[in-house]
Every structure is written in C-alpha cells, then in structure tokens.
Amino acid sequence: MNLTKKERFDLSKEESINYLNKRKVLLKEIRKEYKKISKGNSKKT
Fold it and tell me: Alpha-carbon distance 35 to 39, whole Å?
C-alpha cells in the first residue's frame, strides 16, 4: 500500500484527532469517578 505524502499526513492527522477525542472522554470519566470517590470519603470523616 503506497500512499502519497498528503495521504499519510491526512491519515496521521485523523488518527491524532481520534486519539485526542478518546483521551478527552476518558479524562471526563476519570474526573467523574474521582469526584464520586472524594465525596464519599469526605462524608465518612
């Protein structure tokens, strides 16, 4: 599969965007979980 320079660039750009979006979603989920955990811990003390 021989790709032109532009095709390779476009593919890597697309993959980069997908990666950033997945990372954003995961960070949101982690923050939600952390908030739940920290709220739970603060109630116990």
Answer: 6
